[in-house]
Amino acid sequence: MLEAIDLSKSYNGSTALDSLNLKIEPGEIFCLLGANGAGKTTTINLFLNFIEPSSGTVRINGLDVTREPLATKKFLAYIPEQVNLYRNLTGVENLEYFTALAGGKYSRTELMGFLGEAGLPEGAAERRVGEYSKGMRQKVGIAIAIAKRAQALLLDEPTSGLDPKAANEFSELLLKMRDGGGAILMATHDLFRAKETGTRVGIMKRGCLMAVLNTDEIGHADLERIYLDHMHD
Amino acid sequence: MLAPILRNEWRLLRADRTLHLVAALLAILVAYGVYNGSAWVRFQSNALDSAAGEEAGRLAAMKTAIADVEAGRSNPPAFADPRSPSAAGRSLGTRWASMPPTPLAALAIGQSDLYPYYFRVSTQSRLSFAQNDEIEHPVHLLSGRFDLAFVVLFLYPLVILGLSYNMISAEKESGTLAVTLSQPIALRTLAFGKILTRFLLVALLGVALPAAGVLLSGADLSAEGAGMRLLLWIAVVVAYGAFWFAVAALVNAAGASSPANAIALAGLWLLFVVLTPAIVNGGAKLLHPVPSRVEMIQAMRDAGRQAAAQRSELLAAYLEDHPEFTVSRDGAMADFATIGIVTAQATERAMQPVLERFEKQLDAQQALVDRYRFLSPAILAQAALNDIAGTGVHRYRHFQQLADAFHERWRQYFIPRVMKREVLAPPDVDQFPAWTFEEESLAAVLSRTAASLAGLIVLSVLCFAGAAVALNRYRVAG
Amino acid sequence: MISIIARKEFLEMTRDGRFRWASVIVSVLLLAALLLGWQHQNDVRRQHEQARRHTRQDWLTQGRKNPHSAAHYGVYAFKPTMPLSWVDRGVDPWVGVASWLEAHHQNDFQYRQAQDSTAVQRFGELTGATVLQLLLPLVIVLLTFGAFSDERERGTLRQLLSLGLRRPDLALGKALGVAGALGFLIVPATLAGVLALALSEQNGALLADGGRILGMTSSYLLYFVAFLGVSLAVSAKAPSSRAALLTLLAFWIVNGLVAPRAAADLARLVYPAPSAFEFANKMDAAMKHGIHGDETPEQRAAALREEVLRRYNVSRLEDLPVDFGGIRLQAGEEHANTIFDHFYSDLWTTFRRQETVHRTLAAFAPVLAVRSLSMGFAGTDFTQHTHFAKAAEEYRREIQRLMNGDLAEHGKTVQGPYLQDEALWSKVPEFTYEAPDAGWVLSHQASSLVLLAAWAAAAAAAAWRAAATQRVD
Question: Most buried of the four, A111, A118, B100, B215, by CB within 10 Å?
Answer without folding.
Answer: A118
